[in-house]
Amino acid sequence: MLEVAILGLLNESPLHGYELRKRLSLLLGSFRAFSYGSLYPNLRRLAEAGWIVAEDDPADPIGAPGRSRRKRVYRLTAEGKARLAERLAEVGPDAFDDEGFGARLAFFGQTNSDIRLRILEGRRRHLEERRDGMRAGMARTRTRMDRYTLELQQHGLESTDREVRWLTELIEHEKTPQKEK
Question: Residue 30: what are its φ and ψ, rounded to 5°?
């Protein structure tokens, strides 16, 4: 998930580590808590794979207060662009779960329509199964729940219902032929 997010952001433009960290937090914040300690090991791994390069920023003055070297700018390589395209074309269970779906959705603009549709449909099936399980669990335990637990369960069920409706709308939109501009 983090690999897709990093490659996707760097595909938009080269970024300093700090800028990349901020953009990842904005991108992933609504879907998962982002651990800053995981960024730099991932950047190192992506660089070792040849998918990104890290270069000194020539516009950054050496000797700025508290720093002994220039900022590093991370840029996607041609191999990185190919890796991103490969990852965005993958459709599997990790594209449907809460964590993976959020990262994939953020880069739908870079994803083919047929892949978007398969991911949306897979996510909807995933949530429908979750919703059915929630309903069955509530039916079995309703009499043993206190008012607050029941409210919490109901809130989760309503949230899942809303997301299923939203996904259905996105799927219908994706299936509707877009007019040429």
Answer: -75, -10
Distances (CA, A) of 2 to 21, 95, 98, 168: 11, 12, 13, 27
Q: What is the mean pLDDT of the chain?
A: 87
Q: What is the DSSP letter of 96?
A: T
Place of tokens 């949306």: 120
Task: Report pLDDT for 35.
Answer: 62
Residue from 111, 7, 132 nearest 120 by CA: 111
What is the value of pTM for the model shown?
Answer: 0.78
Helix (H/G/I), strand (E/B), else coil: 124: helix
The span from the CA of 95 to the CA of 110, in Å, is 15
- Concatenating the DSSP letter of every residue in 9-70 gives HHHH--EEHHHHHHHHHHHHTTTSPPPGGGHHHHHHHHHHTTSEEEEE-TTSPTT-TT-SSP
Give the integer Cα–Cα distance in Å for 74 and 6.
10
Segment 56-67, tens digit of pLDDT:
877 766 656 666
Alpha carbons 127 and 68: distance in angstroms, whole number? 50
Check if the beta carbon of residue 174 is closer than 8 Å to that of residue 120: yes
